[in-house]
């Protein structure tokens, strides 16, 4: 079982404030369970994250629906991170995050790095070993002929994670050798 993570943030560096976590468990056949939490921005900043002005300006240019995801009250970052770890560990047949086959993010230096840094800044253990980190962006760029069939709202973390997982499944099906 693989895990696709998508974060919405207020920055681009490892210390970016997380404002939403979306994740989807999947295998080569399809997706299974999903996780989604909106995060209280102040709690991310309180954990040491640094807001990037250019990212805030970028969010201001996004759709009302995308920005609306963050108008509701979010969970404190440590609570959301603990809930995410519990989500991974409680999946039937998975048992523990260490039994994952891969933890995918959209960029070698983005999702996985930012969420791992948030776990450490909150005094929590990252719930998977570092060697399970995988880069979806690298794989999608290796197979540009496989189109993404995007579903849901662009920049909604769980919709993006679901679309990315489905795209990776399609790429795997088109590849000469299965990697999932």
CATH-defined architecture: 2-Layer Sandwich
State the distance separating the first and last CA atoms.
8 Å
CATH homologous superfamily annotation: Ribonuclease H-like superfamily/Ribonuclease H
CATH class: Alpha Beta
Q: What is the percent of helical residues?
A: 25-40%
- Secondary-structure class: alpha/beta
Could you please say which CATH topology applies here?
Nucleotidyltransferase, domain 5
Supply the number of helical segments: 7
Mean pLDDT: 93
Rg from alpha-carbon coordinates = 16 Å
Overall number of domains: 1
Classify the beta-strand content into a percent band: 15-25%
- Residue stretches low in confidence (pLDDT < 50, at least 5 long) are none
Number of strands: 5
Task: Provide a quick synopsis of the model.
The protein has 180 residues and is α/β, with parallel strands linked by helices. The protein is built from 7 helices and 5 strands. The protein has a 5-stranded mixed beta sheet, with helices on both faces.
């Amino acid at each position: 079982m693989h895990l696709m993570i998508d974060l919405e943030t207020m920055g681009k560096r490892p210390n970016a404030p997380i404002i939403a976590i979306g994740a989807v468990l999947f295998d080569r056949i399809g997706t299974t369970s999903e996780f989604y939490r909106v995060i209280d921005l102040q709690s991310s900043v309180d954990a040491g994250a640094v807001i990037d002005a250019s990212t805030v300006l970028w969010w201001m240019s996004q759709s009302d629906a995308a920005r609306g995801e963050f108008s509701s009250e979010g969970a404190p970052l440590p609570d959301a991170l603990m809930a995410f770890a519990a989500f991974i560990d409680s999946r039937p047949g998975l048992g523990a995050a260490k039994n994952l086959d891969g933890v995918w993010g959209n960029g070698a230096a983005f999702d996985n790095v930012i969420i791992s840094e948030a776990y450490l800044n909150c005094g929590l253990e990252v719930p998977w070993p570092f060697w399970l980190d995988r880069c979806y962006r690298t794989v999608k760029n290796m197979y540009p002929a496989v189109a993404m069939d995007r579903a849901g709202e662009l920049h909604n973390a769980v919709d993006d994670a679901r679309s990315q997982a489905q795209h990776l499944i399609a790429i795997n099906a088109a590849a000469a050798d299965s990697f999932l």
